[in-house]
Amino acid sequence: MQVKINDSWKNILQTEFKKPYFENLADFVKNEYTKYTCYPKDSDIFAAFDFCALDDLKVVIIGQDPYHGVGQANGLCFSVHDGISHPPSLINIFKEIEKDVDIPYPKSGDLSRWAKQGVLLLNATLTVRASEAGSHQKQGWEQFTDAVIQKISEEKEDVVFLLWGGFAKKKVKLINQKKHHVLMSGHPSPLSANRGYWFDNKHFSKTNDFLQSIGAATIQW
Fold first, then answer.
1. CB atoms within 10 A of CB 11
2. Are 178 and 66 in contact (CB under 8 A)?
3. Residue 55 catalytic?
4. I need a labelling partner for 68 at 20 to 30 A (CA). Which of 89, 128, 173, 177 fits?
Protein backbone atom coordinates (compact mmCIF):
# COMPACT_ATOMS: atom_id res chain seq x y z
CA MET A 1 0.00 0.00 0.00
CA GLN A 2 1.39 3.35 -1.05
CA VAL A 3 0.35 6.23 1.18
CA LYS A 4 -0.62 9.06 -1.12
CA ILE A 5 -2.19 11.73 1.02
CA ASN A 6 -2.80 15.47 0.85
CA ASP A 7 0.30 17.39 1.99
CA SER A 8 -1.57 19.25 4.75
CA TRP A 9 -2.26 15.88 6.40
CA LYS A 10 1.13 14.39 5.61
CA ASN A 11 2.81 17.04 7.75
CA ILE A 12 0.97 16.03 10.94
CA LEU A 13 0.72 12.29 10.24
CA GLN A 14 4.19 11.48 8.91
CA THR A 15 5.37 10.22 12.31
CA GLU A 16 2.36 7.85 12.36
CA PHE A 17 3.31 6.38 8.97
CA LYS A 18 6.73 5.42 10.33
CA LYS A 19 5.44 3.48 13.34
CA PRO A 20 5.75 -0.33 13.30
CA TYR A 21 1.98 -0.89 13.51
CA PHE A 22 1.41 1.19 10.38
CA GLU A 23 4.14 -0.61 8.46
CA ASN A 24 2.48 -3.91 9.43
CA LEU A 25 -0.89 -2.51 8.39
CA ALA A 26 0.49 -1.43 5.01
CA ASP A 27 1.85 -4.95 4.42
CA PHE A 28 -1.50 -6.48 5.42
CA VAL A 29 -3.47 -4.22 3.07
CA LYS A 30 -1.06 -4.81 0.17
CA ASN A 31 -1.38 -8.58 0.66
CA GLU A 32 -5.18 -8.44 0.89
CA TYR A 33 -5.52 -6.35 -2.29
CA THR A 34 -3.20 -8.79 -4.09
CA LYS A 35 -5.06 -11.93 -3.00
CA TYR A 36 -8.69 -10.76 -2.80
CA THR A 37 -11.12 -8.23 -4.15
CA CYS A 38 -11.10 -5.36 -1.66
CA TYR A 39 -12.80 -1.98 -1.41
CA PRO A 40 -12.42 0.87 -2.02
CA LYS A 41 -10.03 0.75 -4.97
CA ASP A 42 -6.50 1.40 -3.74
CA SER A 43 -6.37 4.93 -5.17
CA ASP A 44 -9.42 5.85 -3.03
CA ILE A 45 -8.21 4.48 0.32
CA PHE A 46 -7.22 7.97 1.52
CA ALA A 47 -9.90 9.85 -0.45
CA ALA A 48 -11.36 11.41 2.72
CA PHE A 49 -8.07 13.27 3.22
CA ASP A 50 -7.61 14.12 -0.46
CA PHE A 51 -10.99 15.84 -0.76
CA CYS A 52 -10.72 17.69 2.57
CA ALA A 53 -7.43 19.41 3.38
CA LEU A 54 -6.64 19.92 7.06
CA ASP A 55 -6.58 23.68 6.58
CA ASP A 56 -10.17 23.63 5.28
CA LEU A 57 -11.55 21.21 7.89
CA LYS A 58 -14.77 22.29 9.63
CA VAL A 59 -16.72 19.09 10.33
CA VAL A 60 -15.80 15.45 11.06
CA ILE A 61 -18.26 12.59 10.49
CA ILE A 62 -17.08 9.19 11.72
CA GLY A 63 -18.20 5.92 10.14
CA GLN A 64 -17.05 2.39 10.90
CA ASP A 65 -16.30 0.29 7.79
CA PRO A 66 -16.34 0.93 4.04
CA TYR A 67 -19.26 -0.58 2.15
CA HIS A 68 -18.36 -4.10 1.03
CA GLY A 69 -20.70 -4.41 -1.98
CA VAL A 70 -19.63 -4.11 -5.62
CA GLY A 71 -18.97 -0.53 -6.70
CA GLN A 72 -20.21 1.09 -3.50
CA ALA A 73 -17.21 2.30 -1.46
CA ASN A 74 -15.46 5.45 -2.64
CA GLY A 75 -13.27 6.21 0.37
CA LEU A 76 -15.74 8.56 2.09
CA CYS A 77 -17.89 7.25 4.94
CA PHE A 78 -21.60 6.79 4.11
CA SER A 79 -20.88 7.86 0.50
CA VAL A 80 -21.35 5.86 -2.72
CA HIS A 81 -20.41 6.48 -6.35
CA ASP A 82 -22.88 8.13 -8.71
CA GLY A 83 -25.34 5.64 -10.15
CA ILE A 84 -25.14 3.30 -7.14
CA SER A 85 -28.32 2.68 -5.15
CA HIS A 86 -28.30 4.53 -1.84
CA PRO A 87 -27.69 2.20 1.14
CA PRO A 88 -30.25 2.36 3.99
CA SER A 89 -28.13 4.56 6.30
CA LEU A 90 -27.51 7.09 3.53
CA ILE A 91 -31.22 7.17 2.72
CA ASN A 92 -31.96 8.07 6.34
CA ILE A 93 -29.23 10.74 6.33
CA PHE A 94 -30.79 12.37 3.27
CA LYS A 95 -34.29 12.11 4.77
CA GLU A 96 -33.10 13.92 7.91
CA ILE A 97 -31.40 16.62 5.82
CA GLU A 98 -34.60 17.08 3.81
CA LYS A 99 -36.61 17.53 7.00
CA ASP A 100 -33.99 19.53 8.92
CA VAL A 101 -32.69 22.03 6.38
CA ASP A 102 -35.27 21.70 3.59
CA ILE A 103 -32.85 20.43 0.94
CA PRO A 104 -34.55 18.08 -1.56
CA TYR A 105 -33.52 14.41 -1.53
CA PRO A 106 -30.57 14.20 -3.99
CA LYS A 107 -30.07 11.81 -6.90
CA SER A 108 -26.36 11.40 -6.17
CA GLY A 109 -25.08 9.54 -3.12
CA ASP A 110 -21.55 10.83 -3.72
CA LEU A 111 -20.72 12.98 -0.68
CA SER A 112 -17.51 14.41 -2.13
CA ARG A 113 -19.52 17.63 -2.47
CA TRP A 114 -19.52 17.81 1.35
CA ALA A 115 -15.85 16.89 1.61
CA LYS A 116 -14.87 19.74 -0.71
CA GLN A 117 -16.56 22.13 1.72
CA GLY A 118 -14.49 20.94 4.69
CA VAL A 119 -16.31 17.82 5.91
CA LEU A 120 -13.95 14.94 6.73
CA LEU A 121 -15.87 11.71 6.05
CA LEU A 122 -13.71 9.34 8.05
CA ASN A 123 -14.27 5.61 8.41
CA ALA A 124 -12.51 4.03 11.39
CA THR A 125 -11.35 1.23 9.09
CA LEU A 126 -10.36 2.38 5.60
CA THR A 127 -10.47 -0.93 3.72
CA VAL A 128 -12.54 -4.11 3.60
CA ARG A 129 -12.60 -7.44 1.76
CA ALA A 130 -15.50 -7.79 -0.71
CA SER A 131 -18.68 -9.17 0.85
CA GLU A 132 -16.99 -9.58 4.26
CA ALA A 133 -18.03 -6.80 6.62
CA GLY A 134 -15.41 -5.99 9.25
CA SER A 135 -12.77 -8.16 7.60
CA HIS A 136 -10.03 -5.52 7.95
CA GLN A 137 -10.83 -4.49 11.50
CA LYS A 138 -8.20 -4.81 14.25
CA GLN A 139 -5.29 -4.74 11.81
CA GLY A 140 -4.14 -1.21 12.70
CA TRP A 141 -6.60 1.05 10.90
CA GLU A 142 -8.40 1.98 14.14
CA GLN A 143 -5.11 3.01 15.77
CA PHE A 144 -4.36 5.20 12.75
CA THR A 145 -7.79 6.85 12.55
CA ASP A 146 -7.84 7.41 16.33
CA ALA A 147 -4.52 9.22 15.89
CA VAL A 148 -6.10 11.32 13.13
CA ILE A 149 -8.96 12.35 15.44
CA GLN A 150 -6.50 13.23 18.22
CA LYS A 151 -4.34 15.27 15.84
CA ILE A 152 -7.38 17.20 14.63
CA SER A 153 -8.36 17.87 18.24
CA GLU A 154 -4.84 19.13 19.02
CA GLU A 155 -4.12 21.10 15.86
CA LYS A 156 -7.51 22.69 15.15
CA GLU A 157 -10.17 24.69 16.98
CA ASP A 158 -13.95 24.90 16.61
CA VAL A 159 -14.38 21.70 14.59
CA VAL A 160 -17.84 20.10 14.69
CA PHE A 161 -17.67 16.36 15.39
CA LEU A 162 -20.79 14.37 14.47
CA LEU A 163 -20.79 11.08 16.38
CA TRP A 164 -23.57 8.76 15.27
CA GLY A 165 -24.13 5.48 17.08
CA GLY A 166 -22.33 3.67 19.88
CA PHE A 167 -19.12 3.04 17.94
CA ALA A 168 -18.62 6.69 16.97
CA LYS A 169 -19.61 7.98 20.42
CA LYS A 170 -16.64 6.13 21.94
CA LYS A 171 -14.36 8.49 19.99
CA VAL A 172 -15.46 11.39 22.19
CA LYS A 173 -12.60 10.58 24.58
CA LEU A 174 -10.14 11.59 21.84
CA ILE A 175 -11.67 15.05 21.45
CA ASN A 176 -11.02 18.15 23.56
CA GLN A 177 -14.59 19.38 24.05
CA LYS A 178 -13.38 22.71 25.38
CA LYS A 179 -11.98 23.49 21.93
CA HIS A 180 -14.50 21.72 19.72
CA HIS A 181 -18.25 21.23 19.26
CA VAL A 182 -19.52 17.63 19.61
CA LEU A 183 -22.99 16.45 18.55
CA MET A 184 -24.09 12.88 19.31
CA SER A 185 -27.12 10.82 18.32
CA GLY A 186 -28.16 7.33 17.30
CA HIS A 187 -26.90 5.83 14.06
CA PRO A 188 -28.78 6.46 10.79
CA SER A 189 -29.11 2.70 10.17
CA PRO A 190 -32.74 1.50 9.99
CA LEU A 191 -32.39 -0.46 13.25
CA SER A 192 -31.48 2.69 15.18
CA ALA A 193 -33.57 5.15 13.16
CA ASN A 194 -36.75 3.08 13.47
CA ARG A 195 -36.34 3.08 17.25
CA GLY A 196 -36.32 6.87 17.27
CA TYR A 197 -32.60 7.42 17.84
CA TRP A 198 -31.79 9.19 14.55
CA PHE A 199 -34.55 11.31 13.09
CA ASP A 200 -35.04 14.85 14.38
CA ASN A 201 -31.47 15.08 15.72
CA LYS A 202 -31.17 18.26 13.60
CA HIS A 203 -27.40 17.79 13.37
CA PHE A 204 -27.21 19.47 9.98
CA SER A 205 -28.89 22.72 11.02
CA LYS A 206 -27.08 22.66 14.39
CA THR A 207 -23.74 22.29 12.59
CA ASN A 208 -24.50 25.28 10.39
CA ASP A 209 -25.76 27.33 13.34
CA PHE A 210 -22.44 26.72 15.10
CA LEU A 211 -20.36 27.51 12.01
CA GLN A 212 -22.35 30.71 11.53
CA SER A 213 -21.79 31.65 15.18
CA ILE A 214 -18.00 31.57 14.70
CA GLY A 215 -18.13 33.40 11.38
CA ALA A 216 -17.38 30.36 9.20
CA ALA A 217 -19.11 29.50 5.93
CA THR A 218 -21.94 27.02 6.42
CA ILE A 219 -22.14 23.61 4.70
CA GLN A 220 -24.43 23.16 1.71
CA TRP A 221 -25.73 19.71 2.60
1. 10
2. no
3. no
4. 173
Q: Are 48 and 121 in contact (CB under 8 A)?
A: yes
* Amino acid symbol at 177: Q
What is the DSSP code (8-state) at residue 132? B
- Of 27, 44, 55, 65, which one is the catalytic site residue? 65
Q: What local confidence, expressed as pLDDT, does residue 195 receive?
A: 86
- DSSP H or E stretch at residue 139: none
Predicted pLDDT at 92: 98
d(CA 19, CA 28): 14
Average pLDDT in the 56-67 region? 97
Phi, psi (degrees; rounded to nearest 5) at 182? -110, 130
With contact defined as beta carbons under 8 Å apart, do 125 and 135 qualify?
A: no
Alpha carbon distance 106, 117 (integer Å): 17
Rounded mean pLDDT of 55-72? Answer: 96
* CA dist., res. 137 & res. 6, Å (int): 24
C-beta of residue 62 within 8 angstroms of C-beta of residue 166:
no
21 and 124 Cβ atoms separated by less than 8 Å: no
pTM score, two decimals?
0.96
Residue 2 pLDDT level (bands cut at 50, 70, 90): low
- Non-local (6+) Cβ contacts of 154 within 8 A are 176
What is each CA distance from 188 to 9, 63, 194, in whole angstroms? 28, 11, 9
Whether the per-residue pLDDT at 156 is higher than 90: the answer is: yes
What mean pLDDT do residues 108-124 have?
98
